[in-house]
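Private note to self, pasted from the team thread so I don't lose it. Backbone tokens:
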């Protein structure tokens, strides 16, 4: 199956895999608030809409963010509803953010007779170790660093944290959440001193093996479209672009 056919399923799984601290259902949309940090966790997920008054839903979203003292944001993907939402927000004065890509790959079938050892230097855990957390947080902005631990505490239970060690120390992090036939690739980080040593590839390999054991058939991830190094890495590991998304923001 072409990965583009999975886009709606992937986008819904991505919302579940990084839950906001506070959510409200709005006519099929999901208003999300995480007290700063991740923009997606502080924006309206627009994957479904069954209301009859779009303008009223937008105004209610604005009211809720205004009460938090925050800008109103909407995440817009190729499967957002209604299909003309992006144009309608633009007409209301919402600014368009940077492009992001959603990527996916089919998981290689595991060899049941010979599963093999874990990827070199990669350890798995059901909760983040202090070393894992230090690596992951090291690459975040102060705002995201403050909020991320609280979001991690609310993750779905079907998850695994991946720590890559070099010379006895954790230098790389990754996270995967299994969701039916999909498994995410999240929280990828490598300390600067350990880059270009195969750490990210080792974590990706370990995530794929774990996901296969959970019965998943596809991996997915999301990244900034202009992060050429990351995109090249993921493409080299078999990921292909399934879709794109961006945010629409109005501060007033």
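Design output:
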């Amino acid at each position: 199956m072409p990965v583009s056919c999975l886009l709606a399923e992937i986008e819904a799984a991505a919302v579940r895999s990084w839950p906001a601290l506070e959510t409200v259902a709005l006519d099929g949309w999901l208003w999300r608030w995480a007290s700063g940090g991740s923009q997606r966790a502080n924006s309206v997920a627009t994957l479904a809409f069954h209301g009859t008054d779009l303008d009223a839903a937008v105004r209610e979203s604005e009211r809720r963010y205004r009460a938090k003292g925050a800008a109103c944001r909407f995440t817009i993907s190729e499967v957002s509803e209604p299909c003309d939402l992006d144009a309608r927000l633009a007409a209301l004065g919402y600014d368009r953010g940077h492009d992001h890509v959603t990527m996916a790959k089919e998981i290689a079938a595991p060899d049941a007779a010979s599963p093999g050892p874990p990827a070199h230097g990669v350890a798995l855990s059901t909760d983040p170790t202090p070393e894992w957390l230090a690596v992951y947080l090291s690459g975040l902005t102060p705002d995201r660093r403050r909020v991320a631990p609280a979001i991690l505490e609310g993750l779905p239970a079907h998850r695994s944290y991946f720590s890559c060690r070099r010379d006895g120390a954790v230098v790389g992090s990754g996270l995967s959440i299994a969701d039916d036939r999909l498994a995410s690739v999240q929280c990828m980080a490598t300390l600067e001193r350990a880059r270009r040593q195969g750490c990210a590839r080792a974590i990706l390999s370990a995530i794929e093996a774990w996901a296969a054991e959970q019965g998943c058939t596809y991996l997915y991830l999301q990244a900034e479209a202009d992060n050429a190094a990351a995109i090249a890495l993921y493409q080299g590991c078999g990921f292909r672009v399934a879709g794109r998304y961006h945010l629409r923001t109005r501060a007033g």
